[in-house]
Design a protein that fits this description.
Blueprint: H1 2-9, E1 33-34, E2 44-45, H2 47-51, H3 53-64, E3 74-78, H4 82-93, E4 96-102, E5 110-116, E6 122-128, E7 138-145, H5 149-160, E8 174-180, H6 184-192, E9 194-196, H7 204-208
Parallel strand pairs: 3-4, 3-7, 7-8, 8-9
Antiparallel strand pairs: 1-2, 4-6, 5-6
Length: 211
């Protein structure tokens, strides 16, 4: 996987046409590029995956596969990269899309939730207060779940407004991300909510170790 990423990184332009003959789950992960700018950046950049037509289509299909037949009323994406996958998932499901924003961007009445992101920085997340009615079943989508702090804040916002992220004895909706790391926060989410991600089990340890 790392060799494929490194090889693609040397290409002067993104390869957006090649599609493998056998498209196994997660084949598109090799489209992502490793960090070359240092510790202040995420360790892996999925932008090229989103530029690849078949890669993006297969990624969204894999994220939604575990929720086939589940009752989903709305998809919510987390600021900012979760907007890409969330909007794509909403369009595929023919459902509405709700943007969960970083504080200060919404000019309407909001509900706010403080949280710490993957870098340990203290932030605040907001959602408009009129978008979620009691019992609304939400699929929460983000690009990545590393420490779980951002996703837990989004779950808190949805549930405070009466929305259902997952509930026992009901058809559950839940949480989807390209990768859900096996961190303490990532495990907390996976133990309590129906989750979907794109990383095959054989690659999970390498993603957990940022390799």
């Amino acid at each position: 996987f790392h060799a494929q990423c490194s090889q693609r990184l040397q290409c002067p332009r993104m390869e957006l046409c090649h599609v493998p003959a056998t498209r196994e789950k997660g084949w598109y992960l090799a489209l992502m590029a490793p960090n070359v700018k240092g510790p202040n950046y995420a360790w892996l950049d999925p932008s090229r995956l989103y530029c690849h037509p078949q890669g993006l289509q297969d990624c969204v299909a894999d994220l939604l596969q575990p929720f086939q037949g589940d009752a989903i009323d709305m998809v919510a994406g987390i600021d900012a990269m979760g907007f890409i996958l969330g909007a794509a998932a909403a369009a595929t499901l023919q459902k509405g899309f709700l943007a969960i924003r970083k504080a200060g961007h919404l000019c309407v009445q909001t509900v706010a939730q403080p949280y710490s992101d993957y870098s340990g920085r203290e932030k605040v997340m907001e959602v408009r207060s009129d978008a979620i009615s009691p019992g609304l079943r939400i699929l929460l989508v983000d690009q990545w779940v590393e420490t779980g702090g951002t996703m837990r804040a989004a779950i808190e916002l949805v549930e405070r407004l009466g929305g259902v992220v997952a509930a026992p004895l009901r058809v559950p909706t839940g949480v989807a991300a390209i990768c859900m790391e096996s961190s303490e926060g990532g495990k907390w989410i996976q133990e309590r909510y129906k989750c979907s991600h794109c990383v095959p089990p054989r690659l999970q340890p390498r993603f957990d170790q940022h390799q």
